């Protein structure tokens, strides 16, 4: 049994660049901020969903299983099943993919799926030396042992580590995500100037989309507890230039690295939802489908070159559909790093890579940059890891609708050496 799966609506919060200290919203706060207006405009009650699925990586202690907490706060009712998924950067897309498979196979008809992340709320963790000292001190049996343990204490043990720093380091290769982008820049000859130029383009495309009101159909303002209104993505720098970016020092491989804070995705808070429905649900509730989710693909590769994940997953998706790169009208390729996006494009153009890695007879071809991330991406928007996959799916649909296009692919690399892709057509 295989049924069509429709995307009928969606929304997201503004993406808020992390500043000093925790931001105004937790992951569930963000999910509720964009979820509530989304559900209020539907012709069915919030408890009509079969289930709620949410991607979230940095779950905070007060919101275990944020999908369930969000579902209850959204009024979906105590009988609503809800669960959280995590596959690093692909979590928001994984939530949609899980919903897609439930509906396609006939076990569900209506699912709320998305992602939420508040990277500014990433916890501070103790150093291993402090953990070991506390273990010895708490296990002391008598005053003498406690005194000996106390004497071993060192002030530097109190210096915490931001949990996000550990989360962005691959435990298998011991490489930070930025270092994996440096490897790709080296392997595919991506220059610092090219990465900076891509970054500038991302900012200018987002600034134009904001000025033209192109994001209004997907964006819901978020209101803080203090009454502050957040109505736009705040990471964009319309005055960005290659000359300004050239003054920044490499972030990971000094002094000659290509990856800088200016051409990398921003640390950001944000959330996004989409509503997926079967044909039966569309008829039952009088819904108007916006797009059909045709297929999805997940791939894996060496973690040290994780940024090439979109090349593997998208190519496999295209082969199964009997399509080429040129058959895709619009692409959303998550901008983890400018150099990483450019490396993906270069890989598709590389004859040896396509033959040896992708199993193609030759180079896959070129993706027209005018069809790629047309309204900017994570370099200018930010990359709240649990939410980005859901955002690029939602924006792909809204951008195709605006431009009158039919077929698109949303794809992303995933920390740990994986990639995800979805093939979508507008209705």
Oligomer kind: single chain
State Rg: 22 Å
Determine and state the CATH class of the domain at 177-214 and 294-426. Answer: Alpha Beta
If helices are DSSP runs of H or I spanning 4 or more residues, what is the number of helices? 15
Helix/strand-derived category reads: alpha+beta
Q: What characteristic shape results from the CA principal axes?
A: globular
At CATH level 3, the topology of the domain at 177-214 and 294-426 is: Peroxisomal Thiolase, Chain A, domain 1
Per CATH, which architecture of the domain at 177-214 and 294-426?
A: 3-Layer(aba) Sandwich
Mean pLDDT: 96
How much of the sequence lies in strands comes to 15-25%
Count of β-strands? 14
How do the helices and strands follow one another from N- to C-terminus?
EEHEHEHEEHHEHHHEEHEHEHEHHHHEE
**Poorly predicted regions:** none
Give the structure's gist in a few sentences.
By secondary structure, this protein is of the alpha+beta class.
Task: Name a few traits of the molecule.
427 residues, alpha+beta, Peroxisomal Thiolase, Chain A, domain 1, two-stranded antiparallel ribbon, 15 helices, 37% helix, 18% strand
